Amino acid sequence: MDFASPRIALTVPRQTAHLALVRQVVVAAAARLGFADDDVVKIELATDEACANAVVHGAAADGPATFELTIEAEEDDLVITLRDRAPGFSFEDEGRFELAAKLREQGQGGLGVYIMRSFMDEVTYRREGEVTVTTLRKRRAAAGELVTSGTGAPHGAA
User: Fold this and answer.
1) pTM of structure
2) 96-105: Cβ within 8 A, 24+ apart
3) What SS3 class is residue 68?
4) Domain residue ranges of the chain, discontinuous segments joined by +
5) Surface-to-core class of residue 109, CB atoms within 10 Å of its CB (0-12 exposed, 13-18 middle, 19+ buried)
6) Alpha-carbon dihedral sign for residues 118, 123, 125, 128
7) pLDDT digits (tens, 9 = 90+) for 28-64
8) Closest CA to 46 of 95, 99, 102, 117
9) By three-state DSSP, how is residue 79 classified?
10) Is 7-143 CATH 3.30.565.10?
11) Of 21, 43, 18, 45, which is closest to residue 32 (Cα–Cα)?
């Protein structure tokens, strides 16, 4: 992979105004690593959802008014890790539903984890003391290879 640095680390103020900058950095990193345009958009949206969750749910948390984001290249994977002080929740129960039924019941909102899981190949969530760690992983498709997302839907033919 052609990446000037194998790791980018950002400390981001916990304010929605700074999410555009995060998106720009993530898009630039994914494009530089050779991800297909549709995968770059998926990575951008999944990362934006994770960061928006940190901003919204971390607002009531004690500690610094920032969150940490790292972007790393690992062989053919792009790994984005977000560390924040938002309160924990039952991640395994989130984002697993039939979309049309969810929208009929609830309308818009509450789709962040669903989007992350649908657009990334792997999404993990864990607590390290008072810190919430969310990791998003996307595998870069080789030329002509069809990769499936976390939901099993094909995407990313390069």
Assistant:
1) 0.76
2) none
3) strand
4) 7-143
5) exposed
6) negative
7) 999 999 999 999 999 999 999 999 988 887 766 666 7
8) 117
9) strand
10) yes
11) 43
